[in-house]
Amino acid sequence: MTQVATTPDHFGARLAKAVAERGPLCVGIDPHPGLLDAWELTRDADGVERFARTVVEALADRVAVLKPQSAFFERYGSRGIAVLERVIRDARAAGALVLNDVKRGDIGSTVEAYAGAYLDPASPLCGDALTASPYLGVGSLAPLIATARAHGNGVFVLALTSNPEGPSVQHAVAADGRTVAQTVLDEVASLNAGYEPYGPVGVVVGATVGETGHDLSRVNGPFLAPGLGAQGAGPDDLRAVFGNARGSVLPSVSREVLRAGPDMAALRSAAARAADDFRTVLA
Ligand SMILES: O=C(O)c1cc(=O)[nH]c(=O)n1[C@@H]1O[C@H](COP(=O)(O)O)[C@@H](O)[C@H]1O
Prior knowledge:
Elements: H1 11-22, E1 26-29, H2 33-38, H3 45-59, E2 65-68, H4 71-74, H5 77-93, E3 97-104, H6 108-118, E4 129-132, H7 142-151, E5 154-160, H8 167-170, H9 180-191, E6 201-205, E7 223-225, H10 235-242, E8 249-253, H11 255-258, H12 264-282
Parallel strand pairs: 1-2, 1-8, 2-3, 3-4, 4-5, 5-6, 6-7, 7-8
Helix pairs in contact: 3-5, 3-12, 6-7, 10-12
């Protein structure tokens, strides 16, 4: 876990390059039943496939990161998972980085299997990164970090989530006086030490969380910032939440952009507008 790689193709470098070229934006592919209705698609694997493939066709050649939310595919069983496989493959082929939003966390020996499923190129579900939950201990995620490093992929660890229930766990104070979230931030910082422009282990900090008093300055990794749009936060909140760390923020929106569909030109303009707004605030 102390190995440091600063080769240009580690995930931090790949993400920084994608953001520089395409703008600071991650678009979530979240085929909510209500969105399937609005797009006049069926609430089944066929509907999800049409939905997700439209997003990929409209956006994968222009946004930095696409983030399929796995549960919306899993709920349709093996056919839904097969759709997810194709979405991951096609989005990456069109040049987007794919962040598998699976929020996995378990004992280390099982985390090893998740690493094989989502971060090893031998798997049909392999993306460029995944979301992970640290509540079995950040150390339990070691197999994810090792597999990510081995293949130039990344991991985004939940720290200060965008939902209102998050602080009851994440602001809890541990025996050493730090909050749970600060412990996560500090452990991730040590995993990213020595990397440039930043390391392959990101953290999730919602744009909704306000000024929490946590120290974000040492993470040396990307910040995934959901909570924008449908959950109420706007671009200006990024300045308040991230302060001087805002140069490493990857804003993430799902419904706010997806509601513009199914028209592909409308999806593209919604994404372009969001990327422009975020670029201005994060500069
Ligand atoms: O890890 C995430 O992506 C995530 C973390 C978090 O703290 N809050 C959060 O909303 N998300 C995800 O980000 C997306 C937000 O969707 P919208 O509210 O529609 O933009 C959903 O897929 C959530 O599961």
